[in-house]
């Protein structure tokens, strides 16, 4: 498999990559008004897309506050809430948005992950591949250079990169919420010491002494870890390549093993027994797999599956391409259809070769070894299942096709992870069960990470959709679940605190709320305009008024890491784009003066296009 640069694919060529069942039918954002009001052609007007309250406890409140701040500065601003799948299809696939308010995925807490998010080579890619349409030569140079660098030089490059981003604002980071969860104390222990955003966190829990017997208030009949969640998508779609169905990777991470996991110690072997890397500029990795392992259906797990996975992720048509009549490239040539979720990682790899049943050789693109190994964190897929999913798929209303690999619900899934699929009711529940042939069931399993995790502390893993965060907490309090699997809003904290049976779990989220700008739009294409918009937003007010204090303001996605510039440390207000107001109120005159400095003017209080 050779992962060479590919022709630019229009974002709509992967419309159905979200894996949803409803075709796009237009609507508010399908008829986006490009900043020009029909009654007053000169007025600057925007729409703010976001999620409804029953999907996200904060997004709509933040979006409404953002719109209020924009209106205070004279812009016409309306909030357009929509279902999560629809928002992602329109913002991440169709480019049909002005501004959106949503959470930035946790994966962008690493410098190398910023490469697909912001590099101009991904400006027409689907999903979280530069959805902003942002292009900046200096940013491209720093993104390329930091992949090849290490030590102090890489640190300097990453900090320079962030400074340029702060000046040009492809998106504005508003605030970082705390993830609030509730857990029962009776069945499992260790909740505070694990990361519940990762599948490894649930595997590291411990069974409470005597938990096999039902205790008062617990409706437990077997050795099952039960979660109450508010996101029904995960029960209907178990495709690890899906764009819009993966708010986190917990379920797919329990079903599919990667070669390694990124931890505080770097990338550590998991499905791989070990690896070695040689060379500094374009490293070569030699990976040794664990012997005698199988997929959930009993087929052997081999090096050929690893090589196939990288070939498929690079082009889900496996070299057949999307021909011109089925949505191929405009020059008539066949176009590959890569998997957008892992595009940044697969661009690190030039070639993967299965040397024998348990040995895989990776030839990486020009990159530092500690960057290259991040490619080992993609989920490995069984060739005997996924090779048949390369056909082009068209959906009603979609001009161009995608592939079955990106659209399939993947139910039932066949993985190699510590849990295997047991059953589901779409939109309501999904149940996984322990895979007894997994290497974690061997007490002598090799590898430092496997030893730290230990075995699988439950026989079954059950996820039940309950609706709102408050309902999820009540479900746990009533003994029908062991924990809330998705974070709940701060308004649920008093209910958790009143129950002696519940444990309040609060940890800083790696997924901040951002305002994303569509730099393809008039006005928003100007970084000075975006920077001025950023000065209309009071992050401290969001933390206090929306998060009830359960969060913190920040400037960029690498906050609280060694990569964060000292100049970004938040002390007395935003150090980069200071708020044009105080205590959550925009100073209208200061805001107007800022826009006038850009050449705009006002007509009866409304911001209008320069003459």
What's the CATH topology label of the largest domain?
Dipeptide-binding Protein, domain 3
Percent of residues in β-strands:
15-25%
Mean pLDDT across the residues is: 87
The helix content is 10-25%
| Biggest sheet features | 7 strands, mixed
Give me the CATH architecture of the largest domain, please: Roll
Low-confidence stretches: 2-41, 213-217, 324-333
Number of helices: 19
Region (Disordered): 318-341, 394-415
Family: Belongs to the bacterial solute-binding protein 5 family.
Keywords: Signal, Transport
Domain Solute-binding protein family: 267-603
Summarize the model shown.
The chain is of the alpha+beta class and about 600 residues long. The protein has 19 helices and 26 strands. The strands form eight sheets. Strands 1, 2, 3, 4, 20, 21 and 22 form a seven-stranded mixed sheet that branches. The protein has a five-stranded mixed sheet with strand order 16-17-18-7-19. The chain has a four-stranded antiparallel sheet with strand order 10-11-13-12, with helices on one face.
Task: Report on the architecture of this protein.
- With about 600 residues, this protein is of the alpha+beta class.
- The chain has three domains: about 35-175 and about 510-610, Dipeptide-binding Protein, domain 3 (Roll), CATH 3.10.105; about 180-255 and about 410-510, Periplasmic binding protein-like II (D-Maltodextrin-Binding Protein, domain 2), CATH 3.40.190.10; about 260-405, Dipeptide-binding Protein, domain 1 (Alpha-Beta Complex).
- It has 19 helices and 26 strands.
- The strands form eight sheets. Strands 1, 2, 3, 4, 20, 21 and 22 form a seven-stranded mixed β-sheet that branches.
- Helix 4 (about 135-150) packs antiparallel against helix 5.
- The protein is globular, with a radius of gyration of 24 Å.
């Amino acid at each position: 498999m050779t992962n060479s640069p590919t022709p630019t694919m229009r974002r709509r060529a992967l419309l159905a990559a979200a894996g949803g069942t409803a075709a796009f039918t237009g609507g508010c954002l399908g008829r986006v008004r490009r900043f020009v009001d029909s009654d007053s052609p000169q007025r600057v007007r925007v729409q703010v897309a976001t999620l409804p309250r029953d999907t996200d406890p904060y997004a709509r409140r933040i979006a409404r506050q953002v719109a209020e701040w924009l209106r205070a500065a004279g812009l016409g601003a309306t909030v357009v809430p929509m279902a999560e799948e629809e928002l992602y299809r329109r913002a991440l696939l169709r480019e049909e948005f002005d501004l959106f308010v949503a959470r930035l995925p946790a994966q962008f807490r690493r410098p190398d992950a910023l490469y697909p998010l912001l590099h101009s080579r991904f400006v027409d890619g689907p999903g979280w591949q530069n959805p902003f349409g942002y292009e900046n030569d200096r940013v491209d140079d720093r993104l390329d250079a930091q992949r090849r660098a290490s030590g102090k030089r890489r640190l300097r490059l990453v900090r320079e990169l962030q400074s340029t981003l702060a000046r040009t604002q492809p998106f504005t980071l508003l605030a970082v919420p705390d993830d609030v969860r509730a857990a029962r104390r009776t069945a499992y222990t260790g909740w505070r010491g694990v990361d519940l955003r990762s599948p490894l966190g649930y595997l590291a829990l411990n069974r409470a002494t005597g938990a096999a017997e039902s205790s008062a208030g617990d409706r437990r009949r077997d050795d099952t870890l039960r979660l109450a969640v508010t996101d029904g998508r995960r029960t209907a779609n178990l495709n690890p390549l899906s764009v819009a169905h993966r708010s986190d990777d917990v379920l797919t991470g329990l079903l599919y093993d990667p070669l390694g996991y990124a931890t505080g110690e770097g990338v550590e072997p998991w499905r791989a027994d070990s690896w070695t890397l040689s060379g500094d500029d374009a490293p070569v990795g030699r990976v040794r797999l664990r012997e005698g392992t199988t997929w959930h259906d009993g087929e052997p797990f081999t090096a050929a599956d690893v090589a196939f996975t990288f070939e498929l992720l690079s082009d889900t048509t496996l070299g057949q391409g999307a021909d011109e009549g089925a949505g191929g490239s405009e020059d008539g040539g066949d176009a590959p259809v890569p998997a957008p979720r892992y595009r940044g990682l697969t661009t690190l790899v030039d070639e993967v070769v299965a040397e024998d049943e348990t040995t895989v050789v990776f030839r990486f693109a020009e990159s530092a070894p500690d960057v290259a190994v991040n490619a080992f964190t993609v989920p490995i897929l069984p060739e005997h299942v996924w090779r048949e999913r390369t056909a082009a798929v068209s959906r009603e209303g979609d001009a161009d096709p995608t592939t079955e690999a990106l659209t399939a619900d993947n139910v039932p899934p066949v993985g190699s992870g510590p849990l295997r699929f047991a059953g589901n009711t779409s939109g309501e529940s999904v149940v996984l069960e322990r895979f007894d042939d997994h290497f974690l069931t061997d007490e002598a399993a090799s590898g430092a990470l496997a030893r730290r995790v230990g075995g699988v502390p439950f026989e079954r893993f059950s996820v039940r959709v309950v609706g709102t965060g408050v309902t999820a907490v009540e479900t746990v309090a009533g003994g029908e679940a062991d924990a809330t699997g998705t974070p709940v809003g701060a308004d649920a904290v008093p209910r958790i605190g009143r129950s002696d049976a519940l444990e309040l779990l609060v940890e800083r989220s790696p997924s901040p709320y951002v305002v994303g700008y569509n730099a393809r739009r008039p006005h928003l294409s100007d970084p000075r305009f975006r920077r001025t918009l950023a000065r209309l937003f009071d992050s401290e007010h969001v933390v206090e008024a929306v998060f009830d204090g359960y969060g913190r303001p920040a400037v960029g996605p690498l906050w609280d890491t060694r990569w964060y510039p000292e100049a970004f440390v938040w002390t007395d207000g935003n150090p980069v784009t200071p708020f044009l107001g105080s205590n959550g109120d925009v100073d209208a005159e200061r805001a107007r003066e800022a826009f006038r400095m850009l050449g705009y003017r006002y007509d009866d209080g409304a911001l209008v296009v320069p003459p």
